[in-house]
Amino acid sequence: MALFLALMLNRFWYPCCFGVRECLSDGSTCLEDQMSLLLQLKSTLKHNVAASSKLVSWNPSGDCCSWGGVTWDSSGHVRLNLANNSFNASQIPSGFGKLGNLIYLNLSSAGFSGQIPIEISRLTRLVTIDFSILYFLGLPTLKLENPNLRKLLQNLRELRELHLIGVNISAEGKEWCQALSSSVPNLQVLSMPNCYLSGPLDSSLQKLRSLSSIRLDKNNFSAPVPEFLANFLNLTLLRLSSCGLHGTFPEKIFQVPTLQILDLSNNKLLQGSLPKFPQNGSLGTLVLSDTKFSGKVPYSIGNLKRLTRIELAGCDFSGPIPNSMADLTQLVYLDLSNNKFSGSIPPFSLSKNLTRINLSHNYLTGPISSSHWNGLVNLVTLDLRDNSLNGSLPMLLFSLPSLQKIRLSNNQFSGPLSKFQLCLSLYWRPLI
């Protein structure tokens, strides 16, 4: 009973035990002990005042509710966002580990470098952590070596989101997968692209049953895609581009009913085919460019009414482009270039949000009439090069209000505009 009361006091009545300041605007509470720790932390941060405007507002005599990057709530929890600052390639101070009330910590692209300190593992209330960096040659990088990933996460049982984009973890598949599955059982968002991870993906990863977003692109897994990824029933995003994947992609993953974004691009040895898509599927982005996916695009792709982006460039697809694509009214970006598609181009006049169409380097035939393009007021780029299209070019094509670039070379067009065939590409910028 005593233990229960202690836990309840810790969870709900924490603010009453320390000096507090109340924010008049929203009723949230600044705990003076946390304010003091933040001010101590500020004194250890090597920052450029001009580029770190958030810290300038951390004034002990000012309004704590207006401290830049700091959010307080009525339970005494603290959210700290110091993203996009300039900390001059310094190491992350160990003082962050004293902020025991932190539930959110965002240090992404903040100019830190070197080892992430073990003291972060003391922040047992953390729900979200983000140490992501944008990698550019010569810019500082972060690493997880000592402590490694397992030690960093060992006490963070409440963690729901883990963002480590570009952090050098350098771990093998079994090591990093088991570190996650044993430490953060309730993880929902896993974002570790370009972390120098190797494969294969270990089956222990499937213990993270709440995963909804998986970003592991730009790691060298050199392995097949495991079928157990289809067991994540809440999966909305899966990005595995540029991972050296090979073998055959499991069709079951396409059938995950919640999946909205799938990116497998630039896995040049990864094979697969598109399945029959169910009615009212959730998929909004499908990116398979530069893989060995082949076969026909099924007519059922028209069932994916939420599709906004289709990129199948540089694959081995063949057969006709299904007319059902004309029903994809939300489509914004379509790239089917460098395949073996044949037959005629379906009309896209209902897809009024389209900004780019690239059907170049295929075996498409037949004329292109005004009905194909009527209403495409947002179309910026149209690329139909290197096909066998024929007939006259409709003048409507050149009056589309947003069109900036057309590429039509190496076709069999006739009529007044056929001279443009002699050009490598035709650039058309409307005067109005």
Automatic annotation (TrEMBL):
<dbReference type="InterPro" id="IPR046956">
    <property type="entry name" value="RLP23-like"/>
</dbReference>
<feature type="domain" description="Leucine-rich repeat-containing N-terminal plant-type">
    <location>
        <begin position="32"/>
        <end position="71"/>
    </location>
</feature>
<keyword id="KW-0325">Glycoprotein</keyword>
<keyword id="KW-0418">Kinase</keyword>
<dbReference type="InterPro" id="IPR001611">
    <property type="entry name" value="Leu-rich_rpt"/>
</dbReference>
<dbReference type="GO" id="GO:0016301">
    <property type="term" value="F:kinase activity"/>
</dbReference>
<keyword id="KW-0732">Signal</keyword>
<keyword id="KW-0675">Receptor</keyword>
<keyword id="KW-0433">Leucine-rich repeat</keyword>
<keyword id="KW-0472">Membrane</keyword>
<keyword id="KW-0808">Transferase</keyword>
<keyword id="KW-0812">Transmembrane</keyword>
<dbReference type="InterPro" id="IPR013210">
    <property type="entry name" value="LRR_N_plant-typ"/>
</dbReference>
<dbReference type="InterPro" id="IPR032675">
    <property type="entry name" value="LRR_dom_sf"/>
</dbReference>
<dbReference type="GO" id="GO:0016020">
    <property type="term" value="C:membrane"/>
</dbReference>
<feature type="signal peptide">
    <location>
        <begin position="1"/>
        <end position="19"/>
    </location>
</feature>
<protein>
    <submittedName>
        <fullName>LRR receptor-like serine/threonine-protein kinase GSO1</fullName>
    </submittedName>
</protein>
<dbReference type="Pfam" id="PF08263">
    <property type="entry name" value="LRRNT_2"/>
</dbReference>
<keyword id="KW-0677">Repeat</keyword>
<keyword id="KW-1133">Transmembrane helix</keyword>
<dbReference type="Pfam" id="PF13855">
    <property type="entry name" value="LRR_8"/>
</dbReference>
<dbReference type="Pfam" id="PF00560">
    <property type="entry name" value="LRR_1"/>
</dbReference>
